[in-house]
Amino acid sequence: MDYISVKQAAENFELSERRVQKLCETNRIKGCRMVSGVWLIPANAKKPVDERLTEIPKGSDCLSLKDLCDKLSISTATGRNWMKLGKITPEYTDKKTPYFTKEYANTLKSEIQSGKNKALKNRRNKKYISGNSLYNSYVSEQCKNIVVLQKLLGMTEEESIGFSTNIIQYIVADCALHLFAQKLSLPYKNDNLLLSKFLEGNIVLETYGELIDSLIKDRKEALKFCEKHPLLFSLDYIYEVNEDILGLIYISCKNIGNRKATGSYYTPTKVVKKLISKLDLTANDKILDPCCGTGNFLLQLPATVPFEKIYGNDIDNISVKITRLNMALKYDNLSIKTIMEHITEKNYLTDYTESNFQYIIGNPPWGYEFTEDEKAELRGIYKAATGKNIESYDVFIERALKNLSPNGQLAYVLPEALLNVKAHTDIRKIIMEANSIKYLEYLGNAFDGVQCPCIILLLTHTCQPFSTVGMTVNNSGYITNISIERNVTPEYFSFLTTDGEYQVLEKIKHIESAEFLAHNADFALGIVTGNNKEYLSSEKNNENEMILKGSDICKYHINPTDNYIIFRPERFQQVAPTKMYRAPEKLLYRFISSQLVFAYDNRQTLSLNSCNIVIPKLKRAKIKYILAILNSRVAQFIYKMDFHSIKVLRSHIESIPIPIVDEAIQNNIIQITDTLIAGMTLDDAQATYEQLDQLIFEVFDLTPDEQNIIKSAIDGENKFLV
Predict the structure, then answer these.
(1) Residue 92 pLDDT level (bands cut at 50, 70, 90)
(2) Sheet of 521-524: strands edge to edge?
């Protein structure tokens, strides 16, 4: 087949080259394809009908782009990018507004769920993950029932059984019957097919039969399923004290996508036990888990806490049923009435009325998707419910603080983002009004398949302004006890420093004659192409030029790269103003990094979004002097201690003080900096870095003891010098 260029097609179609390129990007020219970053169009291609003039047929029921994005659980911005990249194509366009048929939307959703459509393949937050998996980290490592559940999931896969809500409840009910029979030493404790026998009335579970019945919507349908799949009900479950086997069945069978849509991340038992161990519980303490799931936090409470003091709540109907069963298994001789009163199915944020708890514990939902009506209601109740989006765990914290008695304690498992992300400033303000942190532990990525560092946060409702005295911080086993009052603001909660490190930080931050890059620099993101495989080449030619990734950046200098691109900004998904890339001088830095890594560029080099840009505009500080400060141990000390981040944000860079010293001192530092910019062997770079850093210590007026505190805190890490 013969092909023509975009320019030739534009002449044939009597359109602009930009318009033809757009038609190619949205797959509206049949047979067009991109080769080495250039669109090739079949010579016999016909001019597409201009969809911008297409009218929506009368009587049709179409979806807007926002409606389609909501259906696919993606943002509208992602939807626009997918249109630009040709991943989705509108059926109609009315006054430049795209519309899609419901049939198209349903087909696309189905293809994404099944994996046929790969549009979500590289997305981190996949809403539609098909299939089921054994969530074995939820229980203890010694759990004997893991093997049994592996058999269960294997059987369902072999027989191609889909886990509907009803089927999951049948399996949970059967397991519960086995557990009760073993715990209570009932005559049928070694039998199988217990659910069938229960449904037929051949066995009766005294007192707790009502809890089993709550899981069965239709006895006839349930019995029919049991008879059709007897192997599923022939498993030998084992009663284990304080093991949430029923919950493990539920969350392993429940669709992974559904868990994420409701913000449900079920907490591993080892994390639950760790949190419970930090509580000084007595038999008189009134305890609530307001989002109890299947009740694992309540199961792990010590036996000395009576059920009469325990309360659980959730909005998930099946989870509440399972928690009630778990409490009946944990405690002897409970009445159904007491269980029902203490384990409730309510909206904790709007409908829960019980109060005056000594402890509120648990793992509130993360990223729950509230409806617009729910958001409007929450904004009228909670100070933390501000902005377009409302983070569920923020309002769960605020609600819990209202339900605590004086000196009561809140113990939640939460994302680490609560401590330092700007979106959570309001809840940090609320915490500081009448509470203090008793214990804080950094857990890292504690949930299977979830790349989200999290923490255990234990607050005391002191009814007094925030205080740091007496606070304990556990960072990967390194424990710090804070004995001095620290200056804390809602902008960041940073408690990773010892008292000595904190005092050095305070000295650095308040050095005289320092200026900051806030309002004194231009910042820009590197290029987001939308498809690196399509736009990047590993070979240099006459049309393309070098483009840098974050991994190409070292302290002070840039390593050679084999990535090349044709710079056509209009084709990329996101791009900064061209003048930022083409600035005579600029600093490039790694965006994803646990260390500050800045390099100098005066060659107008392009960069991808893993390599961002800052152009300082301090009148009394030269750019290479600023480079040396940002690459120094002092700056790294601030970044590590204050932000504990793996993403270098603009706000982090803007917070680093730049001491203003005379030109002679700056020139001396720049002279050494130039040798590092030019590049050298690792040994020479290490020695030169030490020489340069000593000068910067002196600029900050740091004593030998203070220098040693900084070195002790950050040395041993890769400095990215070569």
Answers:
(1) confident
(2) 521-524, 611-616, 586-590, 598-601
